[in-house]
Design brief:
16 helices; 5-stranded parallel β-sheet; disordered C terminus; 430 residues; Rossmann fold; binds flavin mononucleotide; alpha/beta
Length: 430
């Protein structure tokens, strides 16, 4: 890893030499943990593994010792290991404790404050932030007991990473998959560490984020939309939440897991998004317009399905109301951040939009077949009145965290808030 820009020596040292205590529990996703260790180490972390006895059924300590370069700990009563580094020393050694995969069982043990084994004892004995990546069958995940434990842990400040949506080992599809090892490594080793360590640059602030595409109906079965997946907007909402903000997310139709800890309002059309935005804008400090709102909608909505009759047909389209512009022009406008997704002349169009719409900040990204929409990574340039910053290609969740810190910095500088960040934004180039 190289290329930190404008970052304090202390955080740089932490990012480079972070000690991750990785707890592995007995879920099928444990087979992915050698890859997770490799990715954590690739990002500069030193990894000490603790396995539960169930985890040993899924992945061998030998493999994990080989990839982590450290003996794996499994037993609280291992006299030799305890003599080398006691569980209390291990608990102090950790900069972050990560449990991946986290079973329903470990969530229950953590929620109850149990300390019958090495991993749970360590979790009680450490002051390091705790992050868990749950992985289980979708019905287990939805079980009220598991959800109650999730809430208890979340309320105590445990960071819940995922779970993601998709095909599961049991053959079912739903929410419960462990996040990809790289996604977890990015969160644990990236600038999000700062948020996990208690940084709350937007504490007491309300952030409203729009995300995803809109759907403009043509008839009861057809609509006009675009390729936006909502991933960037959802990542921005989660990053604002991590910085202590109250977050309202207004989402167009997406197939992403419902984010937790924020107010989510689902809409379909540009008009609904406009109304929902203005209904909720009153106390908003920062408005982030990440949605790809249809610029045009059909002038008329056919009541019945349009039949195939003529060789050609044309649709009359009318302009949608411009949500970003309408918020930026409010008398008491919040700090307003727009996105400019362009296929060409990205910089010129972005600067034009910043000026014309009187925005506080604009995030410009090129979109096309190979970049931007419906991907997990993004490359952006951020512009404001008297400055700009370029961000190297990174995972959207990582980028979002960096951009939200920049927003907090600019918000504090221009609105005189008491949220001046202590550090400048970290740009990780790999
Ligand atoms: C083949 C198999 C796969 C399992 N996969 C999961 C899983 O993905 N998630 C989960 O929460 N439990 C899973 N379990 C159940 C756990 O292994 C069990 O609850 C165990 O007590 C967990 O203990 P631990 O949390 O201490 O590792 C699985 C069990 C078996 C036999």
């Amino acid at each position: 890893m190289a290329g930190f820009g404008g970052i304090s020596g202390e955080l740089q040292a932490k990012l480079l030499f972070m000690n991750v205590l990785l707890g592995i529990t007995g879920g099928i996703a444990a087979y992915k943990t050698p890859d997770l260790v490799r990715r954590l180490r690739g990002r500069g972390a030193d990894v000490q593994i603790i396995m539960t006895s169930s985890a040993e059924e899924f992945v061998t300590g030998t493999a994990l010792q080989a990839v982590s370069g450290r003996p794996v700990r499994t037993n609280l009563w291992d006299k030799e290991a305890e003599a080398a580094m006691s569980h209390i020393e291990l608990a102090r050694w950790a900069d972050v404790v990560l449990i991946a995969p986290a079973t329903a069982e470990i969530m229950a043990r953590l929620a109850s404050g149990a300390a019958a084994d090495l991993l749970t004892t360590l979790c009680l004995a450490t002051e390091a932030p705790l992050a868990i990546a749950p992985a289980m069958n979708r019905v287990m995940w939805e079980n009220p007991a598991v959800q109650a434990n999730r809430k208890t842990l979340e309320d105590r400040g445990v960071r819940i990473l995922g779970p993601g949506h998709g095909l599961q080992a049991c053959g079912e599809t739903g929410v419960g998959r462990m996040l990809d090892p790289d996604e977890i490594a990015v969160i644990v080793c990236g600038p999000q560490l700062a948020a996990m360590s208690g940084e709350r640059l937007l504490r007491g602030k309300t952030v409203l984020v729009t995300a995803g595409p809109t759907r403009e109906p043509i008839d009861p079965v057809r609509y006009i939309t675009n390729r936006s997946s909502g991933k960037m907007g959802y990542a921005m909402a989660n990053a604002a939440l991590a910085q202590g903000a109250r977050v309202v997310l207004i989402s167009g139709p997406v197939s992403l897991a419902e984010p937790r800890g924020m107010d989510v309002i689902h809409v379909r059309t540009a008009e609904q998004m406009y109304t929902a935005t203005h209904d909720n804008i009153a106390d908003v400090d920062v408005f982030v317009a990440a949605a790809a709102v249809s610029d045009y909608r059909p002038a008329d909505l056919a009541k019945q399905k349009i039949k195939k009759s003529k060789a050609t047909m044309s649709l009359d389209l009318v302009r949608s109301q411009d949500i970003l512009d309408s918020v930026a022009r409010l008398d008491d406008a919040p700090f307003t951040v727009g996105f400019a997704a362009e296929t060409e002349n990205v910089r010129d169009y972005a600067l034009g939009k910043l000026e014309n719409k009187k925005l506080d900040m604009i995030i410009a990204n090129r979109v096309g077949d190979d970049c931007g929409f419906d991907r997990d990574d993004n490359t952006v340039n951020v512009f404001w009145r008297d400055g700009e910053r370029e961000f190297a290609t990174s995972a959207k969740i990582d980028l979002a965290h960096q951009i939200v810190r920049l927003i907090a910095e600019r918000f504090a500088a221009t609105r005189g808030a008491d949220t001046q960040p202590k550090l400048t934004v970290v740009a990780i180039k790999e």
